[in-house]
Specification:
Layout: E1 4-11, H1 25-35, E2 39-48, E3 51-52, H2 53-60, E4 65-68, E5 73-75, E6 84-92, E7 98-103, E8 113-119, E9 122-127, H3 134-149, E10 155-160, H4 168-176, H5 193-198, E11 209-215, E12 217-225, E13 234-241, H6 245-248
Parallel strand pairs: 1-2, 9-10
Antiparallel strand pairs: 1-13, 2-3, 2-6, 4-6, 5-6, 7-8, 8-9, 10-11, 12-13
InterPro entries: Endo/exonu/phosph_ase_sf (IPR036691), Endo/exonuclease/phosphatase (IPR005135), GPI-anchor_lipid_remodeler (IPR051916)
Organism: Mangrovactinospora gilvigrisea
Protein name: Endonuclease/exonuclease/phosphatase domain-containing protein
Length: 249
């Protein structure tokens, strides 16, 4: 039986805002709360002062269920902030029937993985390919999509894919699946202290974040949700499950 869920992908940048360089998880929770997704895939989720941001967000959002990947990546989100371990998570109001992690081809110092979360009627595949080597990024994206194709029922790929719409990984996905890849920015570079003082944009943005229906699913009403709580905007869409292949794409 067909089901419609609202899903979101959001690179939270360890909850460091692009407008003030301050870490504020409440602002991230506000962005998610206003869209009321049934499930949200998060990237750059850090462990801060011994507490995982995904667990804290779940509490702030009223007790959502959580599944998380390893916190093996490290990245400096900006001046005045320590380098923290981070990774990917999925928060959901649906029942989690199971979840698993799948290693991807990775650079030795920057391991990446796919987090699969099985909900009733829909498997979510959350991923955050490297921003480094382009060939590795293309391989990671293709591997993640292949894993989603193997799901026994409807599946969707969510994440900051670190690729613009005209890049090979997105063009390859677009040949197989019907999804929104409009060249509308979802990421902006972090401003310098001088940029903040002068209130100016440090540079043009890029589309990096996507919701891709892979198996027996159809995505509609894709929207980009502007926010200054992160250097990325959130992306939200409706996903209809149990769509026959000749209807979905």
């Amino acid at each position: 039986m067909s089901k419609i869920l609202t899903v979101m992908t959001f690179n939270i940048h360890q909850a460091v805002g692009v407008d003030d360089n301050a870490r504020d998880l409440e602002r991230i929770a506000d962005v998610i709360r206003q869209e009321e997704p049934d499930a949200v895939a998060l990237q750059e989720v850090a462990v801060v002062d011994g507490k995982d941001q995904a667990d804290r967000l779940a509490l702030l959002l009223g007790g959502m269920q959580v599944a998380s990947g390893h916190r093996d990546c490290r990245y400096n989100v900006g001046r005045d902030h320590p380098v923290l371990p981070f990774g990917i998570s999925v928060l959901t109001r649906e029942r989690i029937a199971g979840h698993s992690l799948h290693e991807l081809t990775s650079e030795s110092r920057n391991p990446r993985e796919v987090l699969r979360v099985d909900l009733p009627g829909l498997s979510i595949f959350a991923v955050h390919p490297t921003a480094g080597d382009a060939a590795v990024r293309a391989a990671q994206t293709a591997e993640a999509a292949h894993l989603a194709e193997l799901a026994p029922h409807s599946s969707v790929l969510l994440g900051d894919l670190n690729s613009t719409p005209d890049a090979e990984p997105i063009e390859a996905l677009a040949k197989e699946f019907a999804f929104d890849a409009a060249d509308e920015p979802t990421w902006y570079p972090m401003p310098s202290a001088k940029d903040l003082r002068k209130g100016r944009n440090p540079g043009p943005g890029m589309r990096l974040d996507y919701i891709v229906p892979v198996r027996a699913a159809e995505v509609s009403e894709t929207r980009i949700v502007p926010t200054r709580a992160s250097d990325h905007y959130a992306v939200v869409a409706k996903v209809r499950t149990d769509v026959p292949k000749d209807m979905g794409y």
